[in-house]
Design goal:
By secondary structure, this protein is an alpha+beta fold. The protein has one domain. Helices cover 36% and strands 16% of the residues. It contains 2 helices and 3 strands; from the N terminus they run αββαβ. It has a 3-stranded antiparallel β-sheet with strand order 2-1-3, sandwiched between helices. A hairpin with a 5-residue loop joins strand 1 and strand 2. The longest helix has 20 residues.
Amino acid sequence: MALYSPPYSKEEIRSRGLALYEGKIRSLVEAENQDKIVAIDVDSGEFELGEDTMVACDRLLDRLPEAVIWRVRVGHLAVHRFGIGR
């Protein structure tokens, strides 16, 4: 079994994902999807929402098996939280 190697660096995936989220996706999802995860294919701009990263990514991969995915939590700077409280 061959190991997966993304076609872009981590920095490029982040840059593309953030640009897509800020430029087109945020305004579509932010009002009614607080705390949900958005999985974004950084090549096509297609995205899926889910309650957690696995659900969102699985939905996107079902449609686009070759997707290069960047994730963001709606309304937050980071996908995951560490520590106590919000």
